[in-house]
Amino acid sequence: MKRLGVIAGCLVAAAGVAVAGYVKTSLSIASTYETQCSVEPKNQNYIVGVIGDSWIAGGKLDDGLIKGISSRGIGAVVKSSGYPGARSKLIYENFEQWMNWIETAYSDLRTVYVIEGGINDSLAYVGKDFYVQHMKLAVGAALACGGKAVVLSIPAYDRSKMQRSAFTNFRWAVYRWLSNDDIGDNAEDYNESLAKELSLLIAEGQVKIIDLRAVLPSDAFVKSSNDGVHLTPKAYDAMAVRVGQEIADFIRNEEIR
Fold first, then answer.
1. What is the DSSP letter of 229?
2. Closest Cα partner for 195 from 145, 112, 128?
3. Which member of 5, 16, 48, 195 has the greatest number of CB atoms within 10 A?
4. Domain 34-256 annotated CATH 3.40.50.1110
5. What are the pLDDT digits (tens) for 201-233?
6. Where are the domains of the chain?
């Protein structure tokens, strides 16, 4: 009986830690690691400010975005800032400062903000409402300053390839229970919920959602690293070129309106 009491006590303590982590995710600002990179071709008319998680960090999309945008005959500066491991809340909380810097440094250029995030939200089962709320706030901030907003959807990924500790699995199970996040492909559910919330702004031409599941090379994750979430440099670049082309088409359509 004593042994059972010890085991039960450990489980309760672990659950308490997991619940505390879930609450911290919802209520507090985490520490961040930030990288900033830029590409500045000649004859720029636009500043494209890109913010997100590890898919943006280190400027891994910058060159591809420039290739894609310039292939449509549009000149743009690309500035990117990525926060590895960040969820949508942290990306939003860092967005205003990032946006203010861009608006000050590039006040003579028209602004397009590209917001990427949600992989870490869906991985940890924090709930689609959490994700949608903070992405909407980031989009609203971009529009409030007179810019346009492009949202990159959550891509497909292979959770089974991830190397996780037993405690991480337990913590995610607690998060999943707390958020009632019981959808098999929860990332797609998150994407559909955000698209529904932004549908009016999309119809008005103020916002565009780019479906990363459509623009990623079909074998992107097969040839990616073993974690099932990140891509090879070649796959990132191929994706970024197509994203850049869609951003340019969005810009051109708005110029015609």
1. S
2. 128
3. 48
4. yes
5. 999 999 999 999 888 866 666 555 567 788 888
6. 34-256
